[in-house]
């Protein structure tokens, strides 16, 4: 039972870590949601803003200024939290691989392997919380920006919704949290 739970938690953690990495690297955290006839599709991300022409499918991306330049707080905080979550999830995966019962590393000392699984669960939990805070921070800031424009009756012709990268970050963080719970609470 313990080995099956470990492998299940490892599979979930691996998939969720991939989701977190994709969310950090992709550029569709915020997407335009104009109800009129669209001629272009605009996505804003943590690293660049891309516009896709809907008629011919040509995509152009504008990189943001240098990482050291002044950026909005939501981008800086989300970048920091997501990169930290990616690093912690990767460290937890490496620790978990060494702690799995089906791996012959430290086979003669099962107590150490169990502690490695617990440690991986704790690290994965910390990474998942940081990733969830980063994803939700960005989503809340997008919502507040849109609500502020509506409250002041400012209509710019386009408004933004959460993009698939934002949802991917939330899903990856939630999956890492569930794997963390499996490793720390259910592994006896």
TrEMBL record:
Q: What are the subcellular locations of this protein?
A: Cell junction, Tight junction; Cell membrane
Kindly indicate whether the keyword Protein biosynthesis belongs to this entry. Answer: no
- Molecular functions per Gene Ontology: structural molecule activity
Listed transmembrane segments:
118-140, 162-187
Note the PROSITE patterns from the entry: CLAUDIN (PS01346)
UniProt keywords (A-Z) are: Cell junction, Cell membrane, Membrane, Signal, Tight junction, Transmembrane, Transmembrane helix
Tell me its family. Answer: Belongs to the claudin family.
Name recorded for this polypeptide: Claudin
Q: Identify the gene encoding this protein.
A: Cldn16_0
């Amino acid at each position: 039972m313990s080995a099956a739970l470990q492998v299940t938690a490892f599979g979930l953690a691996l998939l969720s870590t991939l989701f977190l990495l994709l969310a950090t690297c992709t550029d569709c955290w915020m997407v335009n949601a104009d109800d009129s006839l669209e001629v272009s599709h605009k996505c804003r991300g943590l690293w660049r803003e891309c516009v896709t022409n809907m008629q011919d499918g040509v995509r152009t991306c504008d990189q943001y200024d240098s990482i050291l330049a002044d950026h909005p707080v939501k981008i800086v905080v989300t970048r920091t939290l997501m990169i930290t979550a990616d690093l912690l999830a990767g460290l937890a995966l490496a620790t978990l691989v060494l702690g799995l019962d089906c791996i012959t590393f430290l086979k003669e000392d099962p107590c150490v392997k169990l502690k490695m699984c617990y440690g991986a669960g704790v690290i994965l939990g910390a990474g998942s919380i940081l990733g969830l805070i980063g994803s939700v921070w960005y989503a809340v800031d997008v919502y507040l920006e849109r609500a502020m424009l509506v409250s002041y009756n400012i209509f710019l012709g386009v408004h933004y919704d959460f993009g698939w990268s934002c949802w991917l970050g939330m899903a990856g963080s939630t999956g890492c949290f569930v794997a963390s719970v499996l490793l720390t609470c259910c592994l006896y």
